[in-house]
Structure formats: C-alpha cells, structure tokens
Amino acid sequence: MTDITEHTAARPRAEFLHRFSVRDAGTLIGLVVILAVFGVLVPGFFAERNLINILQQSSINACLALGMTLVIISGGIDLSVGPTAALSAVISASMLVAGVPFPLAIAAGFAIGLVCGLLNGVLVAYVGLQPFIVTLGTLSTYRALALIYTGGNPVLGLPAGFRAIFNGSLFGLPLAVIIVAVVALIAWIILKKTPFGEYLLAVGGNEEAAYIAGVPIARTKIAAYMISGLLAALAAQILIGRLGAAEPILGNLWELDAIAAAAIGGASLMGGKGSVVGTILGAVILGTMRNGLTLMNVQSFYQLLATGLIILAAMLIDRVTRGRG
Amino acid sequence: MSVISRLQFKGISKVFPAVRALSDVSFSVGAGEIHGLLGENGAGKSTLLRILSGVYRPTAGSVLIDGRPVMLNNPVAARAAGVAMIHQELQQVPRLSVAQNMFLGHPLTRGGIFVARREQERRAAEALAALDPTIDPAAPLGSLKVAQRQIVEIARALLDRARIVAMDEPTSSLTPSEFKRLAEVIARLARDGVAVVYVSHKLDEVFGICQRATIMRDGVVVGSVDLAQVSEKAVVSMMVGRELAQEQHRSHASSEVRLSVRCLASATKVRDVSFDLHRGEVLGIAGLVGSGRTELLRLLAGADRASSGTVEIDGKAVKLSNPRDAIAAGIGLVPEERKREGIVPLRSISNNMALASMGVFAPRGVIDHTRLKRVAAEKMKRVNLRPFLLDRPIRLFSGGNQQKAIIGRWLAAGTRILLFDEPTRGIDVGAKAEIYHLIEELAAEGNSVVVVSSELPEVIRLADRVLVMRDGTVAAELDRADLNEQAIAAHAIPQSETQAGKAQGHRAGA
C-alpha cells in the first residue's frame, strides 16, 4: 500500500522537474538573489513601475538571445545579430519615411533579417565554414551595408502611427514585453515539442550521429540562423518604434549581450545544450543588474564590471554543478 | 617471482556519491608479470585503473609499489612513481610529431627555455628502436596507424622508466598481425621487469599473453587465477556470475530476396560489389580492416554516395543519396563508433531512440510525447535496457545498453534491413550474448541483417552466409556449411601480400 502512495506522490514531482530543469532552477535562484539584494539596497526597487521597466529594458536583449540560443544549441554562434538588426532597421525606417504602408515596411525589415540569416546558414551548412568566422565576416559586411545605404546618417522622423504600434501597452504591460513573451513561448514550444527542436539538440550534440539517424543537418542549421536573423529584425522594429529613428550603428555589441544571456541561462557553446526558460532568466538578470546599478548611481564602469562578474560566476556554478541534470 | 610484489592493491575501496564503485579490492602483480584484469563493464576495472594513474583517490586502502605505499594524488605523482597508463582512446596530439608527443608535458629543454627538438627526437628514436624502428620520431603522429600510435605510447612509458604499465583495451582497433606485434612488445616490457596490467574484453588475448588474471564483478574481486589452470568458460562464468549458455546457430533465412546489390562502387574504397540479401537472413561480412566493409555499409546506409551500381529493395530500384533516403527505404545502420556516429550523448534514451522517426511521432508538427514514451518503453523493454530509465541521458549508460538503444531506434523507425558494423565492439560478455540474441530474433521476425565483424567467432556464431571482402570487393562467398576461421582468413588476406611473401621466400631460397 505504502508503495503505491509513494509512487503516485513522486510522479507529478518528477514530471515537474522534467519540465523545469535543475539548471533553470539555479538561474532562477540567481535572479531571486539579485532582486533581493537590490530590493534591500535601492528604495522603491520593487515598485511596479520599476519592475515593468526592467522587463522592458530586457526585452530587446531577450528577443536576440532567444535566436542566439537556438543557434548555440545547434553548435554554432551568430555574431552578426547587431548589424542584421541595423540593416533591417534602416531599410524599414527609410521605407516608412518614404510613406510605404506600415505592414509592408515591417515585412521588408523581417525579410532582411531572414535573408541575413539565410546567408549565414548557407555559408555554415553548405560551404562548411566555421560559424564564428562566417558571422564575424557578416558582422562587418551587414554593418557596412547599413552604413553605405544611409551614408552613415540616421533615418529620422518615423511616422507617429508606427511608433504607436510598439509603444502601446496591453494589460498594463508594454507591448514590446508581450511580443517577446509570445516569441519566448513559441521558442519554448519549438525546442520542446517539435522535431526541429529535437534536431537542433541532436545536430549540436553529435552531428555525425544525427546524420546517420537521418536528421536533415543543413536544413536544421540554416533554419536556426534564419530564426536568429528574424528575431534580430524584430528587435530592430521594437527599438526604432521606441526611438522614432533608425541609426546605422544601432545594435553595436548586441551579440555579446545575447550570448551572455544564453550562457547564463545554461546554453553550452559546445552545442547540444540550452534552455529557453534559462535564456529569458539570463536576459532578465542582465537587465536587473543594469537597472539596479543605475538606480544606485553606480558609474557605468562598475556596471560593466558587475556584468562581467555575473557571467563568470554563472559559468563557475555551471562547471561545479556539471553533469547533475 | 620475488616475495615483494612490484604492484599491490591493498583493500582499495572507492565510494562515489550514491555509488560504491570498488570495495576492498586486493591483488598483486609481480615484476615481469603480465596480469589480466577482467570483468564486465561497470565491474570497476576503469575505476581501479584511474586510482592507479592518480585520477581518483581511493576512499580506503592503499597502493604499494615494490612494497612501499605510494601516494598517487594526481596523474603527475603517479607518473613520478613509475606508473604509465596506456588508454583505450589514445591521449595524444595528432598534429605534433611523434617525439613531441613522447615528451608532452615535460619537454627536454636547453637552458629551460628552448625545446631541444633534436635531442628529443634522438631519445625518442632510441626508445622506439627496440619496439618498431620503422616509426620516424619527426613524423606527425597523425600520420601513423593506430597500432603504431599505441607503440609510441609504450615507448613513452619506456622513456619515463615506468615500472608499471597499465593498458586499457589496447587492441580494440588492431588487426591480428598488429596484435601479434603488440604482444611481442608487451612481452619485451615484461622481460625488462615491468609489471603489466592488461585490461581487455577479448578473453583469447588475455589467455594468450597473460600469466595470471584477476576477475572483478560489481566492484569486488571475484578471484585471481593462474590462466594455465582454468578454462575460458570458467573465467566467463566468474565474470558474469552465471553460466552463459552456448547457443546454437539457427537460420531463419527465406528464399525471398529483400535487398539486391549490383556492381556497387564508391569513389575510393568499394569496387564492383554484388550480392543478394534474403528475408530473415543474417549475412556476415568478414575481411581485414581497410578491406572496404565499413565503406560498403555506409553506401547502403546512404551515409556516403555510390559512384556507380544499383540497389534494389523488394525488386524496386532505390536511390540512396543520404541517410534519409535509406531510412525511408527501410535501411538502418548501427555504426561501429557508437560515441561518434551513434548516440547524442546529452539526450535521453527515449529521444535518442526517436531521432530517426520524428516524423512518426509528430504527425502534425508537434511531438506526441505520450506516444513517444509509450513506444520507447515498449522498444526498450524489447531490447532489455538496463537500468530501465528512459529519461536518463544516454551517455550515462554502458556501451552495451547504448547499443541496445540504437537498435531500438531502428525498431521504432520500422527498419527492415539492419546493418551492424562491429556490433559488439567495446561491449562486455553478458551484453554481447544479448545483442546476438536480439540479432537472431530480428531475423526470425523476417528482418534482414548484415553483420560486419572483425571477430571471426562472432561472424561464425551469427551468419547464415558470409561474404569475405578483400581490396574493396567480394573475394568469396561462404555458406554456413563451409564456414570456419581458416576459410575466412584464407580469402581475407590480400593476394599481393601472399605473393610478395612467396616471392621473398624464393629470393631467400635462391
């Protein structure tokens, strides 16, 4: 009798643990500790307004980091997300200024993101170049294209109607946060529930074995880079909506923040490992740090230092707890 | 043998969190003795070797060298104490030269700053001279064959003036003639007074070169035996803890042709291969390493592309341009190198099993995990996975159980033609018997099986018919009635080699 009750009691807990891994729990604890520290040090830190601020400030990085996570899981890396966003931003913006309807201009921005990702993916998957070098090359290339296209000048005067789309709010939350939350949900479903997600994990975990098992290696990798490009374009739309202008130098060093969020969240640069929940938590951790330190009037040099230490601490904890789920 | 042993394990225990890997292990190895260490996977052999080489520290007990207890706190200390470890997977840097590898970690220097490359090469050549003088110390290590690389490791042990050499599965990828050479080298080490601890799954090898052996099971020593006094069968039952029934071969082959291969060739290794595979048949493919066996399987599995030839399944021509084509045609490959080509280490048993049939589990784009779990449970029960933990990452399972999961992968994908490349490499005796059983059951159910193996007893045990490959093509086809090791070997050895041998004999005679 006791046996049976024990069994039924253990079941749901195991299910829950399966959904929410030990590693994600660790990231969550890290976030809670950081929140608690700032809660004590900064008066009014837990005010609703500030918490929403943190989410809004984290949303662009979270958006990029989700795409980055999928690419990293596939065993690659995408250093070109910032310039991809810039190229997408200036093209959408100049169309908007020229009076092209919003949906068309936004679609064109997304298309740019997809094409940038496609080029990365094809060079990695079909030509067989190393992802780091490919995207290092396209990082400069895409940035140069954005600069050449605009002559180095910002595109100013976006229509108010367009700005309203990304500056609105729903249920008291900024639309940008809601958009990224929906993207995160989709990314989670992709990774956990679709063959493509399983293929990403397999390709990054052991490409040769995945090939023998019939996994479409090239298609999987290219899709990951295209998603990353698309999410960079989405981040670009959110940003130019907020700023009302598109600069060709927009998105400088975005790739590093995105990689940091993914790594804090448990993605392994060796491939085959990563978590959507973890990445979101990682992005929020970085956003919280920045928000809290700014409120404390800490110099930006120290903010940089704190961000660096957080990344290193996360990696050390990863190392120590390695192989325990 | 001297009274004081060169190497003595005294009451060694090792406890990991939640696992007791070794308990009270004691045995000794004399100077000049070649001592076999036998046991199934998980018996504790590797843990013991890791203690000997300073990777792990024992929870209790001590290691004595020449009667004195030694502290082997790290690999450097173990090396200083005279222990050399030769790993199954060679730990070398292929881009560096042979000599650089031999002095890796403690290079000879001039004035502590510059590496004395010439001097290193001279000393390396000295050490190699006794073992294999054809190895060039200046050559990049990667240009050497596996067997030669092993010799380099042994030469490195000589350079270190090792008193104890531990070898973990040194022969898992050697041909018989390479093994013979290695055996001579080991015997020479022993003559020089080195104590050799020799771990292998291949009992015939252990019986061939060791004088005594210690058998372990579940972390304890079952016994140390004098190999001249016991039978292989007795040793096996000590290893597995029960008698293994000697199974008789039973054929399930029908006359219906399932797979028909004609004039198949690849750009490099395979040329003009033709054969038929019947329903319910187990076809063995024997031949030396490099005779094109693995390459032939890879062509059939779609992993490499054929340059010419045709493949028909049930009378219909099929195109095999990639593994997906092959899987769709009902062909699945169980590859030789499980770690490299078989498993996705971090993923669970269930996910590894489902990898080849994702389309089936996700008919509308979303994976039906309930169904996946149910099928995984069914297939893994069928292949007798142990421990039966379907959500556990596959890397935490033994080689035999990983192999079972890969077989389950093809069962789930509805494969009807299974290609096995060295199905029991690196798998212990008990699991080996299970894999044999499984292959026979698959055949009995009407599947067709191809088994490539370097182990002739394995081929003879399993195959209804054997193709012997040589120089990329089928040199002979042997029916069950004509099947014996001599017949296979006679066809497998390249003609050019035997002719060259004869020619040399003539010259010597003249």
Explain what this protein looks like in three dimensions:
Chain B: Belongs to the ABC transporter superfamily. Chain B: It is found in: Cell membrane. Chain B: It is a peripheral membrane protein. Helix content of chain A is 76%, strand content 1%. In chain A, helix 3 (48-73) crosses helix 13 (276-295), helix 8 packs across helix 9 (195-205) and helix 12 packs across helix 13 (276-295). Chain A has one domain: ABC transporter involved in vitamin B12 uptake, BtuC (Orthogonal Bundle). With 325 residues, chain A is mainly alpha-helical. With 510 residues, chain B is an alpha/beta fold. Chain B has two domains: 7-240, 3-Layer(aba) Sandwich (Rossmann fold), CATH 3.40.50; 257-496, Rossmann fold (3-Layer(aba) Sandwich), CATH 3.40.50.300. In chain B, the strands form five sheets. Chain B has a six-stranded mixed beta sheet, with helices on both faces. Chain B has a six-stranded mixed beta sheet with strand order 18-19-20-15-21-22, with helices on both faces. In chain B, strands 2-1-4-5 form a four-stranded antiparallel beta sheet, covered by helices on one side. In chain B, helix 4 (117-129) crosses helix 5 (146-159). The radius of gyration of chain B is 25 Å and the shape is globular. Mean pLDDT of chain B is 88; it is low at 497-510. Chain A binds chain B through residues 18, 189, 193-195, 198-199, 201-202, 205-206, 208-216, 272-273, and chain B through 301, 303, 322-324, 326-327, 333, 335, 340-347, 351, 354-356, 358-359, 361-362, 365-367, 369, 391, 409, 413.
Task: Provide keyphrases for this structure.
heterodimer, A: ABC transporter involved in vitamin B12 uptake, BtuC, 2 strands, 76% helix, B: 510 residues, alpha/beta, Rossmann fold, 2 domains, six-stranded mixed sheet, 19 helices, disordered C terminus
Structure in a nutshell:
The complex is a heterodimer of chains A (325) and B (510). Chain A is built from 14 helices and two strands, in the order αααααααββααααααα.
